Amino acid sequence: MWFFARDPVRDFPFELSPELPEGGPPGPWVLHRGRKKATGSPVSIFVYDVKPGVEEQTQVAKAAFKRLKTLRHPNILAYIDGLETDKCLHIVTEAVTPLGAYLKARAEAGDLKELELSWGLHQIVKALSFLVNDCSLIHNNVCMAAVFVDRAGEWKLGGLDYMYAAQGNGGGPPRKGIPELEQYDPPELADGSGRAVREKWSADMWRLGCLIWEVFNGPLPRAAALRNPGKIPKSLVPHYCELVGANPKVRPNPARFLQSCRAPGGFMNNRFVETNLFLEEIQIKEPAEKQKFFQELSKSLDSFPEDFCRHKVLPQLLTAFEFGNAGAVVLTPLFKVGKFLGAEEYQQKIIPVVVKMFSSTDRAMRIRLLQQMEQFIQYLDEPTVNTQIFPHVVHGFLDTNPAIREQTVKSMLLLAPKLNETNLNVELMKHFARLQAKDEQGPIRCNTTVCLGKIGSYLSASTRHRVLTSAFSRATKDPFAPSRVAGVLGFAATHNLYSMNDCAHKILPVLCSLTVDPERSVRDQAFKAIRSFLSKLESVSEDPTQLAEAEKDVHAASSPGMGGAAASWAGWAVTGVSSLTSKLIRAHPTAAPAETNVPQRPVPEGLPAPAPTPVPATPTTSGHWETQEESKDAEEDSTAADRWDDEDWGSLEQEAESVLAQQDNWSTGGQASWAGQTSNPGHKSQESDWSSWEAEDAWEQGWQEPSPPEPPPEGTRLASEYNWGGPEPSDKGDPFAALSVRREAGVQPRQDSWGDDNWEGLEAESRQAKAELARKKREERRREMEAKRAEKKTAKGPMKLGTRKLD
Question: Which intervals carry biased composition (Basic and acidic residues) (predicted)?
Answer without folding.
Answer: 764-774, 781-794
